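Illustration: NUDIX hydrolase.
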Amino acid sequence: MQIIAKHTDERVLPLAGKAIIKRNAARAIALDGDEILLMYTARYDDYSLPGGGMDEGETPEQAMIRELEEETGAQHIRDIRPFGCFEEYRPWYRDGADVMHMLSYCFYCQVDRELGTPTFEHYEIHNGMRPVWVSIGYAIAHNKAVMANSEKAGQSLVRETMLLEMIASQRLEQRHATA
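Result:
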């Protein structure tokens, strides 16, 4: 899958000589009209794409489906197609590493609007995560306000906001192409 964007947190530079851990993740882009299925996290007051780390032996597409079902209760996941891969380097404070190098494989898909019951992990419950259908523009504006005004912004917020902006831009281009 093609790398569509990169972000390096300035706190990890220079990378030379640092212990780097690699993590592969998959994320879902489920759209319904002008709304997108996102995860709202109360602890950080932000919106993010459903998704998470890939398990051993999983393909990115398999991981996306599993994470989407677990986090949102999404049903009838279909019409899966690649969007692109987001590459990032950010601080890491565990496992004896200084930096996490993450590749997030993102996929468009369709799901039923009505969601089933999510199967949250303990930390997701603790962080107050819940699936929501929200307008892309609102989510972008909200996340940008959190980045500008909050000390509790999560590390993934830059990635998530950049991805949402890219999705919105691509949708706008598609609308102009069909107009």
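Reading the tokens back as a structure: Residues 157-178 form the longest helix (22 residues).
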